[in-house]
Amino acid sequence: MIFDNAGNLYGTSYQGGFGFGTVFELMPSNSGWTETLLYLFGNDGEYPFAGVIRDTTGALYGATTTAGDSGGGTVFTMTESGGAWAYSTLSSFAGNGGPERNLVMDAAGNLYGTTYADGAHQYGNVFKLSYANGVWTYASLYDFTGGNDGGYPQSSVTFDANGNLYGTTYAGGIGTCNVNGVTGCGVVWEITP
User: Fold this and answer.
1) How far apart are CA 100 and CA 144, in angstroms?
2) What number of other Cβ atoms are within 10 A of residue 127's Cβ?
3) pTM
4) Are residues 123 and 172 in contact, defined by beta-carbon separation less than 8 angstroms?
5) Of 137, 116, 119, which Cα lies nearest the Cα of 128?
6) Nearest to residue 149, comparing CAs of 189, 99, 96?
7) What are the strands, taking DSSP E only, across 14-150?
8) Euclidean distance between the first and final Cα of the chain, in Å?
9) 24-37 pLDDT, tens digit each
């Protein structure tokens, strides 16, 4: 969950609403916290496993693990105007498992994340969404193969001071673990710009 400048909390529930998850706001009051459901998911995205992040304008960004236009989850944004929140899908995934962890935004406003089982080989990928001229453009930065490079990333990603991107995978690499037919106990990866 995250705070805004007024002390309100924002987050997601994996289920709830119509059964497919929600985006909610908690506002502090003298008697405790007041919950407002900002969005109830359906065919436009289901099961938001991760939370949301905010940009400098107060817009929220998050992801769902399934459904959407291509069936494999979505990245979405929510913007507030006059007390009402508007939902928009920025990208849809076609794989067997969309993003399961929080997105990260760089200083230029680009979004980064991982999918659990999308990408060219269906072992997950690292992606970037860039915004220009009113359009979000999707790019896969790396597609995991399920081998020594890892498979099924389930971590949030993080940047270092030089702009290198880091994360982990649930399977692949070395070791005797076996996850969905992928051997290895996971890897720590780095992508350099």
Assistant:
1) 16
2) 24
3) 0.93
4) yes
5) 137
6) 189
7) 22-29, 32-40, 53-54, 60-64, 74-81, 84-92, 104-105, 111-115, 125-132, 135-143
8) 29
9) 999 998 889 999 99
Helix-, strand-, coil-residue percentages of the chain, each rounded to 5: 0, 50, 50
Between CA 178 and CA 174 the distance in angstroms is 10
Q: Which residues contact 87 (CB under 8 A, 6 or more apart)?
A: 23, 39, 44, 76, 77, 78
The type of residue at 73 is G
Q: Which domains does the chain have, with CATH numbers?
A: 2-150 (2.120.10.10)
Tokens of 89: 């899908």
* DSSP-derived pairing of the beta strands 178-179 and 182-183: antiparallel
Contact 96, 152 (CB under 8 A): no
pLDDT in tens, 69-123: 888 999 999 999 988 999 999 999 987 889 999 999 999 999 999 999 999 999 9
